[in-house]
């Protein structure tokens, strides 16, 4: 299997590269602003200019494209909606059209932010979407442009992504910040009124490639099974790192003035992916253990 990872230097992209190499797949990739350290064929590519994508497919002749690239800064999307629409909304459809024309499989990664967060039970893939900020609106457009161009594309939706970046070996996402604060002895204000099912990037990469091997297509929610607040996530990290839980303080999303609105509840129901692969997604504690033990 030859796989082209678009956005190989992102957190998820680096894990897809790592996981593909571990499976002895032939892996190549694209990067945006900085070239990752992987020893694989890499080319610079921007989703703002998809004209080059046909040549990239011709050069690398992949069997599969995994698009992990996106404009992921939720507040920046609010300030630059046209760019967000291009990168997150329209470009994925262009990639899908190229893949369809060349008979190349496509995975396009999406987000829990397609939901508005007004419910209090985990969202299934069939749940109604209603994004509450530009990022979510443009990612939802991306799902639609992809399906319009290539109805067999696989679209995993992730949530609150964290894990080890496989190009730098650094921990990234919420735990990186929380552990830094805990280690420096600073109090961390954490929301008790936001609920998420965090996705560990290494686990998501394994699951996505398992879904590809299972010939799955359509939307799949890929996250852990634990629907937690950032405060509860912080408690588990404090316990695991033997830091004092007294450094955690309870906060509310309403106390923070941010440019983009966030859904209060975006937990994902992961039943479908579990059924497809014949196994359960991990709990958050299992994911934390995996990173601690550097299992994968
Ligand atoms: N992070 C989360 O909490 C989260 C939650 C749900 C879903 N997701 C989705 O998961 C996927 C992977 O996200 P991630 O967490 O791995 O984010 P990430 O670490 O920010 O990676 C995103 C990648 O996209 C690249 N990129 C940005 N603008 C680009 C452009 N115009 N052209 C080409 N590449 C561009 C970035 O490159 P540069 O850094 O060089 O610009 C970066 O390598 C995305 O589809 C995201 O929407 C993320």
Kindly summarize this structure in a few lines.
With 296 residues, this protein is of the alpha/beta class.
Features:
296 residues, alpha/beta, Rossmann fold, five-stranded parallel β-sheet, three-stranded parallel β-sheet, 13 strands, 17% strand, binds NADP nicotinamide-adenine-dinucleotide phosphate
Could you explain how this protein is built, in words?
The chain has helices spanning 11-22, 53-60, 74-79, 81-102, 134-149, 174-183, 201-213, 230-240, 271-277, 284-292; strands at 2-6, 26-31, 42-44, 64-67, 105-108, 110-111, 154-158, 161-164, 171-172, 188-191, 199-200, 218-221, 248-251. The protein is α/β, with parallel strands linked by helices and 296 residues long. It has a domain at 2-162 and 199-224 and 269-283: NAD(P)-binding Rossmann-like Domain (Rossmann fold). It has a 5-stranded parallel sheet. α4 runs parallel beside α5. The two termini are 21 Å apart. The model has no long low-confidence stretch (mean pLDDT 97). It binds NADP nicotinamide-adenine-dinucleotide phosphate.
């Amino acid at each position: 299997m030859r796989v082209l990872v678009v956005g190989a230097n992102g957190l998820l992209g680096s894990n897809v590269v790592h996981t593909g190499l571990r499976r002895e797949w032939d892996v190549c990739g694209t990067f945006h602003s900085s070239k990752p350290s992987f020893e694989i064929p890499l080319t610079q590519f921007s989703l703002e200019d998809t004209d080059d994508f046909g040549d990239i497919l011709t050069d690398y002749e992949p069997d599969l494209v995994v698009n992990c690239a996106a404009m992921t800064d939720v507040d920046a999307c609010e300030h630059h909606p046209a760019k967000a629409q291009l990168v997150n909304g329209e470009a994925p459809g262009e990639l899908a059209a190229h893949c369809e024309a060349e008979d190349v499989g496509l995975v396009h990664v999406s987000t829990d932010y397609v939901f508005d967060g007004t419910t209090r039970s985990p969202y299934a893939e069939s749940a109604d979407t209603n994004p509450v900020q530009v990022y979510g609106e443009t990612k939802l457009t991306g799902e639609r442009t992809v399906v319009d161009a290539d109805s067999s594309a696989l679209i995993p939706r992730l949530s609150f992504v964290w894990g080890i970046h496989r190009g730098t070996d650094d921990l990234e996402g919420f735990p990186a910040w929380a552990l830094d604060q805990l280690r420096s002895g600073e109090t961390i204000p954490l929301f008790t009124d936001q609920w998420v099912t965090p996705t560990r990037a290494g686990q998501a990469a394994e699951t996505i490639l398992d879904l590809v091997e299972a010939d799955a297509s359509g939307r799949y929610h890929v996250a852990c099974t634990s629907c937690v607040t950032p405060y509860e996530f912080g408690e588990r990290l404090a316990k695991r790192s033997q830091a004092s839980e007294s450094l955690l303080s309870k906060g509310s999303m309403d106390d923070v003035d941010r440019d983009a609105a966030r859904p209060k509840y975006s937990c994902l129901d992961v039943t479908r992916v579990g059924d497809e692969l014949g196994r359960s997604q991990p709990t958050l504690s299992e994911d934390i253990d995996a990173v601690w033990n550097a299992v994968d």
